[in-house]
Structure to design on (707 residues):
């Protein structure tokens, strides 16, 4: 298959001009298959490609496939045949080399392609999923029967690698083309088509808008061949996801038990905006299969001669608004999809807050992927900030709002699967579109900033440190800017941060709040205008805060890696403490003003609304009611005691010029509140002997007041 037009149309950042066809094929496939043809990710494609044509001939690229049941590692090999033959034995040679390389990596042996093997080790170390797919990509195309036979032989290839589940597949030329085209013009449904009934007018009607019937497998096969990559599964919870055990059983039924297929298979469900029964045909308009994706694909791709029938439920969507239609479709899809494991992303796609989020974004010109396999039409959403995913937005919000940049980077899979995190991000808070838009402006501008810094030739001293931190520091940067803007936009929040900055318990209660909900980037700015000024902003944040804090950490741990440092909150907590020191202790505004100048100023009325909303939110979520470190909710009396002990510690610390933690810690306060010691001997069991000697009498006087 001639794919040269796709190579020519690829972004210049992929560096394809004048390169080998195999490298062109490799990069174009990776760009479209793993990054949805988003130009912001060309560096990710280049970094993942380890192509070299020497005696090696093994792994050409390593990527994570997020559309599978678990984020699966894929090792790619590019096999460009052009006018030549497709030689199956050559494919087996590739597979043998790659499987041997995988085995070497698992056993820690020396390997030939260091770039590929470093990527493999990194992904294997970070991933709980130990599945690897070896994917051979080729421009070769053939008829469906030959393709089916080749696939069966390749899937039967046996790979044995210690502690890994390895399988092999081939992406043929038509598969590559389908992947590319799905990004160019994705479909929300099939505009029109038809299925054939077993007998004329043989159907059972439900109310006036839906039917149950038996449809011809050959008519479904025709639908798949014509529309399989053009919206046929667009309304499903997720697109076709391979599962060997289930697929093998379906295949056996198709090939050997066609006459009994109706009994052995649950059938399919089609949702449409309209349909019409004409004799033994059902004409469908604006339709998609919402359940039975694997059945449909297997029937569509497996050659068979004798027709057979499948039970089919055809449901007309009678709702009027887009939101009602979406909600109805997703209810049907979730209720009926029970055969295969479904990823957290697929399960939550049906939740009302996700559907509302999708509607909110769509109404304002933003595409957000809330289920696997959804494709974005770049012609409708041309700018970088107009394209996102709900898990990416969750990472952004978890950093920018909730001050958790380490977990946002390190626990990507749990952003949607962990109920506590999910509820905090999506259920317990409401965001205006303006606020979400501006968070996306920041994130996408940062990704372009990463590309810019990556191209800088300076790679020594602080420049080298900055380059390493920028590569890994998206969520650290978002969290830093988010914290400064909270202090800038909300006086009440700022007062709480000042009052409780040395009191771990209260500080942890107040610091992650949504302190403002309005947009913070000038509405007059286009994305490109903001992006240009944002580069200066990011330079400032790294120069003044992030780089300095990392250097302090590396002083005590010289081998500290950028990636490891940004996987926890330890470094960010240091950055936040530095902001507090400058702002509160040194009473200097230069840092806040330097960052805030890139964002909108707000009037006093809006500031007051921020405060009111913030206080209302705290009350609603019972954040004012403190808990001790054991998770016990404090009574009003105990809370008062706790506060007085904290005030005494702060005053005594200021008076004697000693750190508060040297007097007693928050955990010690919790024990004093619970145990309420009344003698020096009892108090010594909780705090240090020095504390008892110098101020024990005053502490006991405070405690006795609350007994």
């Amino acid at each position: 298959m001639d794919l040269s037009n796709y190579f020519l149309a690829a972004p210049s950042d992929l560096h394809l001009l004048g390169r080998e066809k195999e490298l062109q094929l490799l990069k174009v496939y990776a760009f479209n298959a793993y990054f949805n043809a988003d130009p912001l990710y060309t560096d990710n494609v280049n970094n993942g490609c380890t192509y070299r044509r020497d005696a090696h001939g093994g792994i050409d690229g390593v990527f994570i496939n997020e559309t599978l049941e678990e984020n699966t590692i894929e090792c790619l090999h590019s096999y460009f045949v052009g006018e030549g033959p497709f030689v199956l034995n050559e494919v087996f040679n590739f597979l043998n080399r790659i499987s041997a390389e995988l085995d070497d990596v698992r056993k820690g042996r020396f390997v030939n392609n260091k770039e590929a093997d470093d990527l493999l080790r990194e992904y294997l170390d970070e991933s709980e999923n130990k599945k690897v797919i070896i994917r051979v990509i080729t421009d070769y195309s053939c008829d469906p029967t030959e393709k089916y036979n080749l696939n069966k032989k390749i899937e039967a290839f046996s790979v044995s690698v210690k502690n890994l589940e390895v399988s092999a597949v081939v992406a043929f030329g038509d598969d590559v083309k389908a992947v590319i085209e799905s990004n160019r013009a994705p479909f929300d449904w099939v505009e029109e088509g038809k299925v054939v009934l077993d007998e004329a007018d043989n159907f059972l009607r439900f109310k006036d808008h839906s039917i149950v019937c038996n449809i011809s497998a050959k008519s479904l096969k025709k639908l798949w061949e014509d529309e399989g990559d053009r919206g046929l599964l667009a309304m499903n919870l997720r697109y076709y996801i391979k599962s060997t055990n289930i697929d093998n059983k379906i295949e056996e039924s198709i090939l050997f038990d066609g006459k009994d297929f109706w009994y052995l298979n649950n059938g399919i469900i089609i949702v449409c905006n309209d349909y019409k029964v004409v004799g033994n045909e059902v004409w469908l308009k604006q339709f998609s299969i919402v359940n039975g994706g694997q059945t449909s694909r297997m029937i569509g791709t497996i050659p068979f001669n004798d027709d057979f029938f499948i039970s089919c439920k055809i449901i007309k969507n009678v709702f009027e608004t887009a939101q009602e239609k979406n909600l109805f479709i997703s209810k049907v899809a979730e209720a009926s999809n029970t055969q295969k494991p479904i990823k957290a992303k697929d399960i939550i796609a049906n939740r009302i807050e996700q559907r509302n989020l999708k509607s909110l974004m769509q109404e304002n010109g933003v595409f957000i992927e809330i289920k696997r396999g959804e494709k974005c039409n770049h012609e409708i959403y041309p700018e970088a900030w107009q394209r996102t995913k709900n898990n990416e937005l969750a990472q952004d919000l978890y950093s920018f709002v909730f001050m958790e940049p380490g977990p946002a980077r390190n626990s990507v899979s749990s952003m949607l699967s962990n109920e506590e995190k999910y509820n905090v991000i999506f259920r317990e808070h409401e965001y205006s579109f303006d606020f979400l838009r501006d968070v996306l402006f920041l994130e996408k501008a940062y990704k372009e900033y990463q590309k810019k810094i990556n191209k800088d030739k300076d790679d020594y001293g602080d420049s080298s440190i900055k380059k390493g931190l920028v590569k890994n520091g998206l969520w650290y940067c978002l969290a830093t800017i988010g914290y400064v803007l909270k202090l800038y936009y909300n006086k009440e929040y700022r007062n709480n941060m000042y009052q409780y900055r040395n009191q771990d318990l209260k500080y942890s209660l107040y610091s992650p709040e949504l302190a403002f909900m309005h947009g913070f980037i000038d509405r007059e700015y286009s994305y490109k205008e903001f992006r240009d000024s944002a580069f200066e902003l990011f330079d400032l944040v790294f120069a003044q805060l992030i780089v300095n804090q990392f250097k302090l950490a590396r002083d005590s741990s010289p081998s500290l890696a950028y990636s490891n440092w940004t996987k926890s909150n330890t470094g960010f907590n240091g950055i936040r403490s530095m902001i507090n020191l400058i702002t509160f202790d040194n009473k200097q505004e230069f840092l806040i003003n330097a960052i805030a100048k890139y964002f909108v100023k707000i009037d006093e009325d809006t500031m007051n609304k921020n405060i009111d909303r913030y206080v209302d939110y705290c009350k609603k979520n019972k954040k004012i009611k403190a808990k001790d470190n054991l998770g016990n909710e404090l009574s009003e009396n105990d809370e008062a005691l706790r506060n007085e002990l904290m005030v005494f510690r702060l005053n005594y610390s200021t008076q004697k010029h000693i750190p508060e933690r040297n007097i007693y810690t928050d955990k010690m306060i919790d024990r004093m509140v619970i145990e309420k010691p009344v003698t020096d001997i009892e108090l010594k069991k909780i705090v240090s002997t020095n504390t008892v000697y110098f101020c024990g009498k005053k502490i006991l006087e405070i405690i006795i007041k609350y007994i």
About this structure: The CA atoms of residues 192 and 690 lie 83 Å apart.
